Amino acid sequence: MSALVCPKCGRTEEEVEFIDAFCKDDYPVRLKLPDRMELEQCTRCARVRLQGEWMQFSDKKIAKYIISKCKGDYDSAGYDMERQAAVFVMSGSGAKVERIIPLDLKKTICQQCSRMSGGYYQAIIQLRGDPLRVLGKGTMLIKRLENRTFISKSEEKDGGLDIYVGNSKAVVEVVTTLGLKTFITKKLVGRDQGKRLYRTTFLIRL
Ligand SMILES: [Zn+2]
Ligand SMILES: [Zn+2]
After folding, report:
1. 8 A C-beta contact, residue 86 and residue 67
2. How far apart are CA 69 and CA 96, in angstroms?
3. I need a surface site. Which of 1, 19, 62, 118 has the fewest CB within 10 A?
């Protein structure tokens, strides 16, 4: 009984898995793959940057992104984050072909986190009124806002609560969704390359 020998690398089928007459590494397929993938990951919030946008770290999304960079005659493909291997099911033959695509997560700090650590904020929400309601609404607002932006700090003030928020558009959205009545004041705080910079205060009486 003679074992198959790969014409390219000379290994036998006892040493490595075969597809037809070739070992699985040398099976001739048309695939154009990136040599490696480099993605930025924030060391603070662990989010990753995909196509210019920071998003929650997700194996699924990263795998999909990597596969989107792989061209060739395959019907379906998947990427295994742990082994950093892409597996392709080739068109026609249905052969399963595996290729290593190293994934390098470059550690960096996203703009949101660097602003947060610098104490940056665009808006202040001032909650005033019944202490229990202030606490309840404050907790709810912070929770909702943290899904969209960041909270620089929150502190008790004048018997109420002041919440410092990274993005004022996010405040408008959340406050509108919750149907809260607000009294809005804008203050010019400076200029950035000719653009006026405002800080918005949202006063909410509860
Ligand atoms: Zn081979
Ligand atoms: Zn971050």
Report:
1. yes
2. 18
3. 1
